[in-house]
Automatic annotation (TrEMBL):
It comes from Algoriphagus kandeliae. The keyword Oxidoreductase applies. PROSITE patterns: ADH_SHORT. The keyword Oxidoreductase applies. CDD domains: SDR_c. GO terms for molecular function: oxidoreductase activity. Gene3D superfamilies: NAD(P)-binding Rossmann-like Domain (3.40.50.720). Pfam families: adh_short. This is SDR family oxidoreductase. Belongs to the short-chain dehydrogenases/reductases (SDR) family. Keywords: Oxidoreductase.
Length: 234
């Protein structure tokens, strides 16, 4: 039976790379974005490159609770989800004491609350059939304190904590839970930075890591993976 993966924020960067990596393995793809043109382009590219798969690409702003629920309902009607990747996120630099008003709420709702709500919608079916894998896309900002991390770092520390709790809860149900903690990866978040592209990790390397963690036997789970640029953090 064909399997399905749900990747939030799948039109760019790491999310896009994960969609393509799993499509390569014959997975149906479910994803979302706030930009309709990007969704249309992604769906066409996936279907052209992998004609045997199905793709659901939905317009959704996951910083809004009601849109998370609406997207989840469409996803569940489309396919039985085998892999959930909570990848959607936003990064706005700033210090806790003086970052712009609203940064905290936006990043917590986008980076953390969306994952919390989506997990609660998708997990019941996984629990019923006693199989599935949940990946949380964190960051080294969720394990290492640094100046100007602000609310982004707070959201990623919280994401790691939530994922650790979820791992313990899902053990009896045979559901694997993995935290992915990437360092600087060449995505839209780093556009305009005056550094050579070779200084960053490739999004495809993160996607390959997710696939490798998923592809273990049922008796093993990778709980947490930290991936950094070879020359260290930026």
């Amino acid at each position: 039976m064909r399997k399905s993966i749900l990747v939030t924020g799948g039109t760019k960067g790491i999310g896009r790379a994960i969609c393509f990596r799993f499509a390569q393995e014959g997975f149906d793809i479910v994803t979302c974005s706030r930009h309709e043109s990007d969704l249309i382009e992604l769906k066409e590219e996936l279907e052209n490159n992998f004609p045997g798969i199905r793709v659901l690409a939905e317009l959704a702003d996951l910083s809004k609770k009601e849109e998370v629920f609406a997207f989840a309902e469409k996803a569940k009607k489309f396919a039985s989800i085998d892999v959930l990747v909570n990848n959607t996120g936003v990064f706005l630099p700033g210090a806790i004491h003086d970052e712009p008003e609203g940064n905290f709420e936006l990043m917590m709702h986008t980076n953390l609350f969306s994952a919390y709500y989506l997990v609660r919608e998708i997990l019941p079916e996984m629990m019923e059939r006693k199989s599935g894998h949940v990946f949380s896309m964190g960051s080294i900002a969720g394990t290492t304190a640094y100046p100007n991390g602000g609310s982004y770092a707070i959201s990623k520390w919280a994401m790691l904590g939530m994922t650790k709790c979820l791992r313990e809860e899902m053990k009896p149900f045979g559901i694997k839970v993995t935290s992915i903690l990437p360092g600087a990866t060449f995505t839209a978040s780093w556009e305009g930075v005056d550094l050579p592209i070779e200084r960053f990790m490739k999004a495809e390397d993160v996607a390959d890591t997710v696939w490798a963690a998923y592809n273990l036997s049922p008796s093993s789970v990778v709980e947490e993976i930290t991936i950094r640029p070879q020359l260290g953090d930026i």
